[in-house]
Amino acid sequence: MEIKKVTDPAFRKYGRVLENYDFSQLIEAMEKSPLPEDVIYEPSIDYLESLPIAQEFKVRAYGELDVQVGFCNGHNKKLNAAEYHRSSELNIACKDAVLILGKQEDVEEDNTYDTSKMEAFFLPAGVGVEVFATTLHYAPCNPGDDGFKVVIVLPKGTNYPLAEKHAGGEDALLAATNKWLIGHAEGGLPEGSFIGLKGENLSI
Questions:
Q1: Within its chain, how far is the Cα of 40 from the centroid?
Q2: What pTM was computed for the model?
Q3: Residue closest to 93 by CA, chosen among 46, 136, 144, 160
C-alpha cells in the first residue's frame, strides 16, 4: 500500500506532529528496551516515566492529566486489528515505523469496518505524533527488516485488564481499559476478540 509521510496534509485528520519537544533522553533510554521478533507492548515503564519529558507530556500534551509512558516494539508488517481510545495517544518513534490509520466515524453501526479506508504513514525515528482519539490504529509496522521501537503515551490506567465483562453494541469491542478493538479474522487475536474488520488484512 502507499505510504505517505506524517508531514503530508493527509495526516492532519488523524493526528498532528509534536513540536518543540526534546526526545533525545527518551530515545537514549529506549536503547535498553527489548526488540523481539514478534510484538511486545508495555503500557508503563519506570525508567521512561522517571524522565523529565514524562512530566512535560503530562502538562503540555494532556493538560495536567496523569499519564503513563510505555512502548510498543518488535517486528510487524500487517494491520491485524484496529483500536481506538477515548483519548489521544502519543507515538514517538525511536526507530523508523509505519502507522496504519483510519477514522472511527467510518465504523458501521454493526461495528464492522472496511480496511480499504485506511491509510499508512511513515513515522521517522526522532519524530513524535499525537494520534487523535477518533483515529483507528494498532501496533506500528517496521518499514525495513530491523524492527520498530515506538514510545506510547496514554492517560494513566489505559490498556489494563477489565474489571467486568462487557457485551452488546460497542461494549463488545472493549478489550481492555479505555481500549475498543475491532479485529481481523487473520489477525491472530485472542479468543473472544471482536472480529469486525472487513477486507484485506493490510500489509506494508
A1: 12
A2: 0.97
A3: 144
Partners of 78 in the beta sheet?
203
Distance, CA of 176 to CA of 29 (rounded, Å): 27
Distance CA 114, CA 40 (A): 26
Q: Give strand pairing partners of 151.
A: 71, 92
Which amino acid does the sequence have at 94? C
CA 163 vs. chain centroid, Å, equals 23
User: What is the Cα–Cα distance from 120 to 77, expressed in whole angstroms?
Assistant: 11
The stretch 24-35 carries a mean pLDDT of: 98
Tell me the H-state helices in the chain: 24-29, 46-49, 52-56
Q: What is the pLDDT of residues 73-108, one digit of tens each?
A: 999 999 999 999 999 999 999 999 999 999 999 999
**pLDDT value at residue 33:** 98
Report the distance separating Cα 96 and Cα 149, nearest Å. 7
Q: Residue 133 — pLDDT band, cuts 50, 70, 90? A: very high
Pick from 96, 41, 50: which is nearest to 70 by CA? Answer: 41
β 97-103/179-183 pair status: unpaired
